[in-house]
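Q: Sequence in, structure out?
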Amino acid sequence: MTKRAKIVCKACRARNEAHEKVCHKCGLPLSTAQDEPDRKIICPRCQHSNNAASFFCYACGKYFAEVEPTKINRSLATKKGNQRPSTPRARIIMPGGSIITLSGDPTFIERSDFNGTTSPDLLMKVSRQHILITCDRGKYYIKDYGRDGTGSTNHTRLNGIDIHGKTRKALKDGDKIELAGQPEFTLTFMLPKGSR
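A: Exactly. Output:
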């Protein structure tokens, strides 16, 4: 009986049996990590290129939603071979003026995005994964997310209207997003000039 080679998880470096489909340690798919080394996740906060199996950015620590990894220097195609519709690279303008770039991948706006910009007591009002911004067919949507997708602890307002516990809402250029009922945590959604 011959020994089969172990598969090393690209995310956590755990050694897995050759027949395993997911890593026994971190639970991420092994096929993505092994078979597609050119696939990457670009961090929306710092633009660092991460392995496709990453669940957080190794440069700044930003948590990734369940994203479909993008191929660098290659266009993404659908199963039928058609080109994926282009997604406008929208931006979230943070209270201090910093920018989170949205590329169409699901993106959390979370407590760690505000580290060092406000007092710790005020910061604790923002949930770890407070809102989730997604893109569908070139249009961006927001959902008050929270710990398990049922809504944040202290709610979210879109242009003054509470969206806690509601389905995703479409975003328009210039929309104001207030987290946790605190004006200090007001964000602005911006589309590129050509797609407004």
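Residues 32-36, 67-84 have pLDDT under 50 and may be disordered.
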